[in-house]
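ARCHIVE ENTRY
Sequence with per-residue tokens
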Amino acid sequence: MSRFNLFTNKKPRKNTSANRKSRRLGSNLQSLEDRRMMAGDVATTELMPLESEYVETSTLDPTAQTNWTLDPISDVEATSGQTLETMLTVSGDVETEALIFSASIVSTIEQKLDAQYDLVESDDYHTNCLGNNERWIRSANGGWFYVMPSGEFYQWQGSFAKSTLLASFDSTHYDDPDLIAEPESIDASVHIEGDVLVITPDADYTGSFQVEIGATDGTHSASQTVLVAVAESIPDEDDNTDDTPTANKPLPVLMVIANQDFYYQEYGDTRQSLEAQGLEVVVAAATTEVSRPHANSGQGADGGLVRPDLALTDVSADDYSAIVFVGGWGASSYQYAFEGTYDHGAYNSTDALKTTVNDLVNDFVEQDKYVAAICHGVSVLAYARVDGESLLDGKTVSAWGGSAPSSDQRIYTTRDNIELNGGTMVESGSVGDPTTVADDVIVDGRIITAENYDSAAMFGRIIGNLVSEPEYVDAVFAEWE
């Protein structure tokens, strides 16, 4: 086996193909000490090794006397091209409005090593040149590094015994030293909108990266890191950009949530069931501002924030197979004929918004399309007026029979809302299998209702099945074919 001089001043051939990167650090930027170390001369000052594992890179400054902390954020899972939004919150004696939040992508260990030492990729990594099955990587500035079969990465200091461990990778970095010499870029964007963290991986990016999040009130600061894992987005084989409905692909389903206090699991499970059947889901609310769910309503650690696709004023019933009102007390803001005033100001809304919702319900009814609601969302149908009568007058429905938001009216439950408007509400668990509440869904004509989050998954499946029936598509959408 041929050997080579590790300390020659002759630089290795560099690959000049278009897809190789240019060196970011010139030799004029390298310190004298680094030059000595790269040339094999043992430095008198120890080099601090870089860790390869993800770690909590920053916390509250232990010397600062702060009275607030940045609430922890769990790791995030995403798919390529998907935008994720996470509300940032703090605990303690400080107003969120007084804080400035920041976010940035943390460089990987490989990127930090490459930036510090200006490593050069090669067609030949001189495997086992000095007899330890090591593979060699050179710096553009003349120093040498090697990676062991176990993945440990060292800076050569004249001998194996004196070399400095810089990072401990896995064996894939030995199999492919380009992972170190030519690290992959992180193709994603991160920014802050007020108190919301927005992460958008590129459409063709997969992998994982860290985001460092910071908050400051001008005097004290806090920060933490979050791991973002991005999986490949698998396109729907049945995806069709043609919006013309067919027997196999009806128009999208419109889901209506409140900007404040919608019930997340009723939204999430219903939507998941619809999308599992190949149906497109469009989300609308009073505005396109980020919608916040009830606390502890089934959302994950990301806060369950949802940004609606469009405002209700921009919705046309012509474009959808069905309309679905999600529960949560925020749905009260869409009750057209409710004449009282709620104690919680966010539930009162405006006459203009209520009229918009009522007109929309009437449009769906006129087009003989399904109108659906779950839990407290059923109260929206109860207060809707079609030809002067409640949409639920004479209808049988399922809904949550417990409490309702406080107001100046003698209405204490969602059942009260329904029965005062001529509807009949069944008892909890009385639909289908008496041993479970997961199937409490009722279809009465073109009205579909479900009790609450327990039955949300089946609620979505039933809506999906009904709007996908060829007879329904033919009857409802004949004028657009």
Notes: The CA atoms of residues 251 and 327 lie 23 Å apart. The two ends are 74 Å apart (CA to CA). Residues 1-65, 238-242 have pLDDT under 50 and may be disordered.
